[in-house]
Amino acid sequence: MVHSFMEVLPLMVLALLVVMAWDQVLALFGGRPPDFSLRAKAEPWPPAYLLGVAAAVGVFNILPLAEEGLRCLRHK
């Protein structure tokens, strides 16, 4: 199951980026050039939200990958 989860992660990241910057996706296929410049958000995300996302990344990404790595090391 870990491998299936790891295969879906890049697709989910791409989907989230598309949702967050839909106007830029439309610009890729529309008449105007897209804006790929990096700049700070006008309203930064609250610290509680960032902490929640970091916790979710740790639980759903880092822990399964670490567990699989330990299994591989134990198998050797």
Annotation keywords:
76 residues; mainly alpha; 3 helices; 0% strand
Structure commentary:
- The protein has 76 residues and is mostly helical.
- The protein has three helices and no strands.
- The protein has helices spanning 2-20, 22-29, 47-75.
- The longest helix is centred in the C-terminal third of the chain and has 29 residues, at 47-75.
Into which percent range does the helicity of residues fall? over 70%
Number of strands: 0
- If helices are DSSP runs of H or I spanning 4 or more residues, what is the number of helices? 3
Radius of gyration: 18 Å
Order of helices and strands: HHH
* C-alpha end-to-end distance: 21 Å
Strand content: under 5%
* Low-confidence spans: none
Oligomeric status:
single chain
Classification by helices and strands: mainly alpha
Query: What do the pLDDT scores average to?
Result: 88
Main pleated sheet:
none
Global geometry:
elongated
